[in-house]
């Protein structure tokens, strides 16, 4: 099977072919760091981290770039409200961003360039567009001459006239045409600014991504990604800027995630119907949030509610329980159960499940169906464990397959959550309890049992040792 990616540019699933063999250049539009991100914003983060994981699993070396917009109107306003400087606001929320997304098991980008650290390149890019006649200065601002770019509208599949009527652009006397967009914005008195050949000011939003993708990944990249609301105008404008400058295709594959909805509406800052990731993480296991996000194919809408989060928690628990039971059986299995009949049939079934999982992920990263294969794996593992005699080879294969699926999706099968105790810590405490009992120190043994009970860990003493599970 070859990997198929739905490309917004062609509106078709296409076979993925990177520019360079074995390498992927991927750019994901990152957050504007003026406050905590909401759960809707967490969707592209989790989805494209999973895309990256799967590409890595398929043997690609992924160069993953995602920017931080660390200066714009919202940051300037936030700085005033919080009585901080703009860089202080950016640092605060970049710190908060990493704290939160680390918990979601999101891998660090290869680079997270900040706009303010790449101002020379941005100014150079704008100057080159002016030289080529694609941009013009006006009253201290610089605008992109949209109509001059013949392919404008190719990503949104709309003729330029329709876009012009649909766009909620404010009338601006400084523009030649209302569809022209800002590349450089003149600073108002007292605002943070950078010096440039066009005067003191700061860059517009779209130009940063064109500049940073070019700087860190080259003129043409493989995958450019973000939420569906970025198709127009953000990505359309990025294409115009980049392609009119370099003369090359900007990105070969454009991927866009669908919206996360709450009560049937898109979660967004402007509607005020948002829950910050920071707050949700106080209540919900990060693993559950990640699993929930992957329970729907990334292009489809996903609905956040107590019920859908609950379903995710239950589904994840099924997988975690299968994993725990398997691990326990492996630790306690008896020697004479090693060589058994039907071993090859079971191993064959496992190979088929792995192929099924890969085929689903190859089909435009269909994590929803891949999770169905994951459940099937857990179910078969439970059936296998219900037998009296088991083969260690098959057990190990089940375990490694569960781990493999979990790693691709970025899910943890070791349960931590409620008790706050890691599996290894629990094992250590159980070992200590056993030792205490051997030394007839029953007081200490009971103390450990009570401590674990308090943490919701239930112990079960069996002929093969002490087994535990989370209550
Ligand atoms: P913003 O802060 O609005 O620029 O959004 C940052 C990222 O989150 C972009 O890729 C958006 O497309 C994406 N995004 C914003 N709201 C939602 C939502 N409700 N569901 C899915 N993605 C979203
Ligand atoms: Zn962007």
Architecture overview:
- Keywords: Aminoacyl-tRNA synthetase, ATP-binding, Coiled coil, Cytoplasm, Ligase, Metal-binding, Nucleotide-binding, Protein biosynthesis, Zinc.
- Residues 356-420 form the Cysteinyl-tRNA synthetase class Ia DALR domain.
- This is Cysteine--tRNA ligase.
- Helix content is 48%, strand content 15%.
- The chain has 471 residues and is an alpha/beta fold.
- Helix 2 (73-82) packs across helix 3 (86-103) and helix 9 (286-294) crosses helix 10 (306-332).
- The protein starts with a strand and ends with a strand.
- The mean pLDDT is 93.
- Bound molecules: adenosine monophosphate and zinc ion (ZN).
Q: In a few lines, what is going on in this structure?
A:
This protein has 471 residues and is an alpha/beta fold. α14 runs antiparallel to α15. The relative contact order is 0.11.
